[in-house]
Amino acid sequence: MRLLIVTGLSGAGKTKVVNALEDIGWFCADNLPPRLAPTFAKLLQEAGEYQRAAIVMDLRAGDLFRDVAWALDTLRGEGFACELLFLDAADEVLERRFKETRRQHPLCGQNPALGLSEAIAAERALLSSLRRQADVFLDTSQTTPTDCKNRIIELYADRPQEALSVRVSSFGFKAGTPRDCDLLFDVRCLPNPFYVPELKEHTGQEECIRSWVLAHVESRVLLSKLTDLLLFLLPLYQKEGKSSLSIAFGCTGGRHRSVLFAEEIGQALKEAGFGVSVGHRDV
């Protein structure tokens, strides 16, 4: 099991990193006391369901945080492939972020006599040894949330496509359009097998409908062009930072043409490496 310890300065972006890791399939635990990390890692390993896990350790743990070096040594000594990601930002950036969010620095909560700048300096001193041990160091001073997410994807995704979850569905216009789709394609322009008596009761998930619809040249051309369009668009959505995308295909009843297109497009996107689920509302 691959194990990542995430730490760094308060306000440097650990929450955004956890969100990005979860989007690409990592199991994440936030603010875990370091002494519990070896037990936690063993439980995950014994469960057998988790190949990648991240643990956030920072000063919110109070005095317990001082055990983080012990936790790292113990995890590595027990054979875990343990990496350390350290997040940092310039002092003035951290101060601005705390003022914008109106959140209290953890050290100010533990010692109300400390000012914000003093707390940041004290935290930096406390974390200096961890910073030197880091396998990856990220300075988020000049990065946007999207930049941060893309960097995490580059570092920790097995495949970049993992960062975008795609839902492909079919529906019938006669029952209304779905409200939650990002992209909607109307395939009512294609020949309709509903009017072929022996095909009427079948669905687009069956080979007889697939063969009949794709026997028409306009169906094959439209399928090819839509596939090319989506294979072009999805990486752009991913680069922009989108974590999920819903694509819907509609025909009159939602049983034949739209179902076929959802199935075919879904399969093409899966073959391109994207995480895809396919559903049919009106079948």
Summary tags:
about 280 residues, 5-stranded parallel beta sheet, 4-stranded parallel beta sheet, elongated
Name the quaternary structure. Answer: single chain
> What is the succession of H and E elements?
EHEHEHEHHHHEHEEHHEHE
Average pLDDT figure: 92
State the shape.
elongated
Intertermini distance: 41 Å
Helix content: 40-55%
Q: Strand fraction band? A: 15-25%
Low-confidence regions: none
* Coarse structural class: alpha/beta
Largest β-sheet summary: 5 strands, parallel
Number of strands: 9
Description:
- This protein is of the alpha/beta class and 283 residues long.
- Helices cover 43% and strands 19% of the residues.
- The chain contains eleven helices and nine strands.
- The strands form two sheets. A five-stranded parallel sheet has the order 2-3-1-4-5, sandwiched between helices. Strands 7-8-6-9 form a four-stranded parallel sheet, with helices on one face.
- Helix 2 (37-47) links the parallel strand 2 and strand 3 (52-56).
- The relative contact order is 0.14.
